[in-house]
Amino acid sequence: MSAVRNFAEAAMNTCRLEERGIVVEKLLEYLAYKSTFESAPKKEDIPDFMERIAPEIALELLMAADYYDS
């Protein structure tokens, strides 16, 4: 556990993100969506998450999702 405390984030209890708030919000929304529907039966009608993404943040969101491996 002491190795974890060597990180600045652990020492300060903060984690700085370089993304805009709307992008972080969408990433978190996707994680909640994924958690809700990942165990849903294949027959269930699952809403398309892409409909929730505004075109003006799509590229920025894609880059952030790739960086955070979401």
Automatic annotation (TrEMBL):
SUPFAM superfamilies: POZ domain (SSF54695). It comes from the Eukaryota. Gene3D superfamilies: Potassium Channel Kv1.1, Chain A. InterPro entries: SKP1/BTB/POZ_sf. This is Elongin-C.
